[in-house]
Every structure is written in C-alpha cells, then in structure tokens.
Amino acid sequence: VGVTTVLVYIYKYFGSINEEKQIKTVRLTDFNQIVDVGHIEFGDSNLEKLKDELEKSKDECRRLQNQLITGKQQTQSIIQHINITCDRCFMSPIVGDRYRCMFCPNVDFCENCQSATNHQHDSKHPLMCVRDSSVYASSIYLQNTSELIHLNSLCSSCFVSPIVGIRYQCMTCKTNLCEKCEFLSLHDTSHERLKIIRPQ
C-alpha cells in the first residue's frame, strides 16, 4: 500500500505593478496520479482570500485522501486467491492477503488466521505475504510438492518416511534428506546433494 503525500509547488511571478505574487498549486499525489486540489494566488492585498482558499484546499485534500484510502481498502478486500484454501478456517478462495508457509508445501492462511496466535502451525516457519496472486509471475510460485511422494525413502535426519516433496540425496553418504532438513542444513553442508524432483 503506497503512502499518500501532499506536495505544494510554489511559483513566483511579477504582476503588472511589480507586486511580487506567489501562486501555490496544492496537489495530491498517489501512485503516479496527480490531482490538482486548489490554486491559490496571493500577495499583500488579498490575505483573507488566501486563508479561505487554503482552508478549501485543505478540506479538498482530506476528502481526496480519504477517497484514495477507502478505494485501496475496498480493492484490497475484494482480491481473491482462486483455488487457495486457508488451512485453519477453510476459507476458499482466500479473500484479501494470503500467507504462505515458506517451508511446508501447500500451507496457506488468510489474514485473520495468520494474525491469530494459535493458528496451529510451526511458529519457526516464516510466512510469505501474497497480496495479489495475479500480479506475480508464475515462476515465483512455490511448487506444490505435496503430490511428490518418494516411496521406500527415509529422511536420515528427521526419519520421515516416505519423503513427500523434493528429495535430496547426499552424493557422499548416499543418504536421503527431505526438503525441510536440507533447507535447515541438518546434514554436512560440504557434501554435494542431488535434487530429485520426480519420484522413481
């Protein structure tokens, strides 16, 4: 979500009687959109007019700022993550921000469940916030590895069997590692590993 800022540009010019005047253009900018809120011309002779115009501009700035914020909130709340289900409350599709576990395949939470302290997921696992799935290139999606089942394979670190997801085989020891243990470097990091995606 971008931050809405108010910029004031000051221009100077000399009038016909060499009275220095200033023109202020109050602009509201957001996401490369510029909206002129007011145009104020002032000098020594029209101080009251300046105050009135400035108040009008401030009110218009507030109104437009609230309109932009409300529009962003409405847009954010209607974003749907199609074919994604919250693993706590089972909302499907997830509406609003989606939180994906970086360690576990196919574990997602909606915004409400992510903020809950007891969402029954490992608190050491980082969650990636995905605001809108449609704006990400498909190449950055984490591969759904829950369907990769390596039968007759045992992780030598956590002893899970069969290994679900990507299997890593140590080229030195000829042992297997699951994704989680390989990521956490629970095996000698100097050993080369073979990444096996397709079960054999």
Overall description:
The chain has 200 residues and is an alpha+beta fold. It folds into three domains: 5-78; 80-140, Wheat Germ Agglutinin (Isolectin 2), domain 1 (2-Layer Sandwich); 149-196, Wheat Germ Agglutinin (Isolectin 2), domain 1, CATH 3.30.60. It contains three helices and 13 strands, in the order E-E-E-H-E-E-E-E-H-E-E-E-E-E-H-E. The strands form five sheets. A three-stranded antiparallel β-sheet has the order 1-2-3, covered by helices on one side. A three-stranded antiparallel β-sheet has the order 7-6-8. Strands 12-11-13 form a three-stranded antiparallel β-sheet. The longest helix is centred in the N-terminal third of the chain and has 32 residues, at 47-78.
Total domains, how many? 3
Summarize the amount of helix as a percent range.
Answer: 10-25%
- Could you spell the SSE succession in H and E letters? EEEHEEEEHEEEEEHE
Largest sheet geometry: 3 strands, antiparallel
Task: List the defining traits of the structure above.
200 residues; alpha+beta; Wheat Germ Agglutinin (Isolectin 2), domain 1; 3 domains; three-stranded antiparallel sheet; 3 helices; disordered N terminus
Layout of strands and helices, then pairs:
Layout: E1 5-14, E2 20-30, E3 33-42, H1 47-78, E4 80-81, E5 94-95, E6 98-101, E7 108-110, H2 111-115, E8 127-130, E9 149-150, E10 163-164, E11 167-170, E12 176-177, H3 179-183, E13 193-196
Antiparallel strand pairs: 1-2, 2-3, 4-5, 6-7, 6-8, 9-10, 11-12, 11-13
